Amino acid sequence: MRPLKTLQKLYDEESQVVITEKGSPPRALFYGEGFLQEDLPVGTRVIFPRPPMAGVPNVKAAIRWAINHPEGMEPLHALLKPGMRLTCVIDDISVPLPPMVTPDVRQSILEVVLELAADSGVDDIHLVIANALHRRMTEGEMRRMVGQKIFDEFYPDRYYNHDAEDPDGIVALERTSHGEEVSVNRRVAESDLIVYVNVNFVPMNGGHKSMGTGVSNYASLRHHHNPKTIRASDSYMEPKASALYRSNERIGRNIDKHLKVFHIETSLNNRMFGGPTDFLAKKEEDYTEGDRLKFQAMRYALSKMPRAAARKVLSAVPAPYEVTGVYAGATEPTHQKTLETSWKQYVVPVEGQSDIVIFPIPFISPYSVNSILNPLLVQVMGLGYFFNLNRGVPLVKKGGVLILLHPAYDEFDPEHHPSYIEFFNRLLPETRDSMKLEHKYEKEFAENPSYVHLYRKGNAYHGVHPFYMWYWGENGRQHVGKVIVAGAENNHVPALLGWDRTDTLTEAIEEARGFMGRSATISLLRIAPTVMVDVK
Amino acid sequence: MPPQKAAFFDVDGTLVKTNVVHVYAYYAMNRGSVLGIAGRTLSTALSVPLFGVMDALDRKTFNEFFYRYYAGLSEDRLITIAEDMFEDVLQPALFEQSQDLIDQARRSGCKVVLVTGALDFTMRPLARHLGADDLIANKMQFVGGKATGKVIPPIIEGANKANAIRAYCVKENLSLDKCHGYSDSASDYAMLAVVGRPTAVNPDLRLRSIARAYNWPILDLK
């Protein structure tokens, strides 16, 4: 007979951790552009996201309060001087996911800041998107992010994407104590004041990473976007456990020494689904009859659509995120406040690791907004992002099995991810060793004139970006004993990625149990919305 | 350390919006005498449908046939007119982003080489303007200072472009596998296939489909 304590835990309505029993409902799980409905073995621990925190009642009032009561700096109005050169640096489209309903919080911040700047006699203002080596945002995306009024006033001469390959557009600052190069966008470096407009989607965003990465170039990024740094990071989401964060911190402190940066950071709740899809955030135990019908209808409709159409349908629903906090001021104290709110929303404490962990992979990633989740991005979602959604201790045991749910189709977007295609088809058949890939091919891809051209003039990710995606999965790859992609529609994609494949989740669990033993413990991270685990 | 790789650029349609017909038309229009201008312009105009058919069928035959129209023009005049022709025809037709692409190739450590089926004297001003290190182009045969209308073999076209690139790499001690190739036309398939890093630029339908099949990057120069 189960002790009362265990029973209480199993039936605690507030708990985000549910242990599967005989009568538990099947789980609604993301599977690329579709959904699966799966019964899980009895005993499987299902970890749900926390319910969304309440948003601030008046976002603009919260922004005004934050910039008037900043952390470790004078209020913004005291920093603005007539005739000064002001640059607002803005997070790019990679956050939040999916893009939020308009007005985007970046628009709200800019409306407040630009009005204040105009009142203070500041005319020389540029808006620079901190896309680093990400693709340039399109005109339509840029308009949506800041609203028509700001767009009309600033685009294209004073509202543009950062260009990390502009030979005249980058300034080198002094190196860090570890010899890391520090490069910054010239306009940013030559400004009297920089206002960084951040959206903190996951704890990895913001802080020193904003400037240290967002307006930098390959020469600087290669000091922390490399397999060695990634292997030394236990979690990208926990600053104390991340060598990546520490490198960005050194670079960011150097930037703060030379430039005056006023950060405005915002945290969002996890209300990822609104309107007709809001039931997706619920536990299946709480589904109403209507929710079940909606889910079945949506699952059926998406399964019958061509994949591109399903992608369009899913991308067409913006997320009704709400702002849970606005913080402003100097880099570190501001970011500390943001992190606290972020963890409060995302972190679910769980007892112990599992032998087998299941990650459903949705249709979107930070690098595939309005594009395709290609095999390398499936890899980065599983072994990079989801594996790292913890505070230093991964959910899966060392040598355990990760099961990813995704069709693993062999599709790439040649406009956004041209260098990914070559990386996947030419390099991965030769080696999956990150160190070898870095040593032998990284520079060649980074300097390939075609890829540089596509990054600068088109809407392509930088030539080196697929390497970063591969490195991003490095600590996950080093940690797990096996990856199985359940529902993969072909053999060659999993094979090239070094994974096993099965047709169904049940088969994947059987194979994983064969690898880990019949008594292997199983956890499912019921994502999305976003959830992070704090493994005790 | 000297460069170990090169970027080979086709010219017509890749870096400039023109083709050999535009260049020849300029020469025809600058024949020197009213009768000459009229004669050459008229005969060129009348031959346009023929050019179109031949170009579509076989670029090599087209070039061989086409260069006959230069017969009788003097060498010094051809060279002199080339400078004006560059300013009047080629420079305005350069894609704005061509120079960026070439500069990027140089920054990545490549020698910049233009490979074209056009005649060398017509392309030299362009090569100088773009800062190219070398030019692989067709050479007109001159006898007694007059063009014979024949090109000194091998004609730089189709598979011969690939041969010329290979020979250039051997001569310059470059690694063919590390070299880049840029072209707009499926007729340059051999040139693109011989280098390790091919790229289709503003490709025609056939080349676009080849590039998609082989996962070559596709650039749309503007």
The termini of chain B sit apart by 33 Å
- Looking across the biggest beta sheet of chain A, what order are the strands in? 1-4-18-14-15-16-17
The CATH superfamily title of chain B: HAD superfamily/HAD-like
What is the number of helical segments of chain B per DSSP (H or I, 4+ residues)? 9
Provide the low-confidence segments of chain B as ranges.
Answer: none
Topology:
The complex is a heterodimer of chains A (536) and B (222).
Chain A: H1 4-11, E1 17-19, E2 27-31, E3 34-38, E4 45-47, H2 59-68, H3 76-79, E5 85-91, H4 105-119, E6 124-130, H5 139-146, H6 148-154, E7 159-161, E8 170-173, E9 182-185, H7 186-189, E10 193-197, H8 208-214, H9 218-221, H10 227-231, H11 243-258, E11 261-268, H12 289-304, H13 307-315, E12 323-329, H14 331-346, E13 347-350, E14 354-360, H15 375-386, E15 396-405, H16 418-427, H17 434-447, H18 449-457, H19 465-472, H20 474-479, E16 482-486, H21 492-497, E17 500-502, H22 505-516, E18 522-525, E19 532-535
Parallel strand pairs in A: 4-18, 5-6, 5-10, 6-7, 10-11, 13-19, 14-15, 14-18, 15-16, 16-17
Antiparallel strand pairs in A: 1-4, 2-3, 8-9, 11-12
Helix pairs in contact in A: 2-4, 5-6, 8-11, 15-19, 17-19
Chain B: E1 5-9, H1 20-29, H2 34-57, H3 59-67, H4 75-93, H5 98-107, E2 110-119, H6 120-130, E3 134-138, E4 140-143, E5 146-151, H7 159-172, E6 180-183, H8 189-194, E7 197-201, H9 205-214, E8 218-219
Parallel strand pairs in B: 1-2, 1-6, 2-3, 6-7, 7-8
Antiparallel strand pairs in B: 4-5
Helix pairs in contact in B: 1-4, 2-3, 4-6
